[in-house]
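Researcher: We plan to redesign the surface later, but first we want a full-length starting point. C-alpha cells attached.
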C-alpha cells in the first residue's frame, strides 16, 4: 500500500448570496472511508465580522489553511487598524492557493460575505487559486447533486417562462434546508458516510440602516430524526 500525504474526509459546502446577505452552509460530519470521527465538525469558519469561509476536504489541510488565513488577517488588522474586506480576502486566498500549486491544499473553498457596497457576495475557488465571484455555488463530495438544484431553483435554468424574482434571506435559508434534506434522501450508504446531513448555516447580514454593520448569525438544524427513504 503506497503512502499518500492526503486523506479524504469528505464534506460539502454551499454558498448563496443575495442583495444584502450571504449564506455559507455546510455539513458537520468528519469521516474517513466508513469511519465517522465526529458528527460535530462544522466546515464554516468566521474570518472577519463580514466574511465566512466554507472549507471541506482533507481536514488537516483545512485547519492549516484557516490558520494561515487568520494569521494574515490579524497582521493586516494590526497594521491598518481595520478588517480586510471580503473581496480582498478572496484575492488573498487565491494568492495563497496559487503559492501552493506544486503541493496544493486538498480543500474545496467557498468564501461568502458582504462587500464594501453592502451587497452579498460568494467567491468559489479551484485548488490552485483560480476564482470568480458568483451568486451561488456548491463544493465538495455532494456538489454534483447540489449544483443542479441551485441552477434550477436560484438560477432559474430549465424553467420556461419563470419570473426571475430574487429570493429573500428567509426564502434562501428555507431553500438551503430543502436542498439539504433532498441530499440526505438521495445518498446511498457510502455517500451518507462522507457528508451526511447539512447542519450549520452561517448568514452574514447587513443591518439595512446604511451603516454597513455586519452581523453573522449561526443556525444549527438537524435532519437526524426525520424519516429518510432509500
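Model: Full-length starting sequence:
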Amino acid at each position: 500500500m503506497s503512502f499518500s500525504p492526503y486523506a479524504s474526509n469528505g464534506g460539502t459546502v454551499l454558498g448563496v448570496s443575495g442583495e444584502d446577505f450571504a449564506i455559507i452552509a455546510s455539513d458537520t460530519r468528519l469521516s474517513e472511508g466508513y469511519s465517522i470521527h465526529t458528527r460535530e465538525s462544522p466546515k464554516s469558519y468566521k474570518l472577519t465580522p463580514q466574511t465566512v469561509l466554507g472549507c471541506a476536504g482533507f481536514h488537516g489541510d483545512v485547519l492549516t489553511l484557516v490558520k494561515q488565513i487568520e494569521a494574515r488577517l490579524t497582521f493586516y488588522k494590526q497594521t491598518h487598524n481595520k478588517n480586510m474586506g471580503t473581496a480582498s480576502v478572496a484575492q488573498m486566498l487565491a494568492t495563497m492557493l496559487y503559492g501552493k500549486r506544486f503541493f496544493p491544499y486538498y480543500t474545496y473553498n467557498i468564501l461568502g460575505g458582504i462587500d464594501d457596497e453592502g451587497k452579498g457576495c460568494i467567491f468559489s475557488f479551484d485548488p490552485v487559486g483560480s476564482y470568480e465571484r458568483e451568486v451561488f455555488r456548491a463544493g465538495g463530495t455532494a456538489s454534483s447533486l447540489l449544483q443542479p438544484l441551485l441552477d434550477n431553483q436560484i438560477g432559474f435554468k430549465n424553467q420556461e417562462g419563470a419570473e426571475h424574482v430574487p429570493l429573500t434571506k428567509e426564502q434562501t435559508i428555507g431553500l438551503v434546508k430543502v436542498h439539504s434534506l433532498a441530499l440526505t434522501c438521495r445518498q446511498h450508504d457510502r455517500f451518507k458516510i462522507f457528508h451526511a446531513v447539512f447542519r450549520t448555516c452561517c448568514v452574514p447580514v447587513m443591518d439595512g440602516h446604511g451603516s454597513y454593520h455586519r452581523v453573522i448569525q449561526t443556525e444549527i438544524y438537524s435532519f437526524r430524526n426525520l424519516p429518510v427513504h432509500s
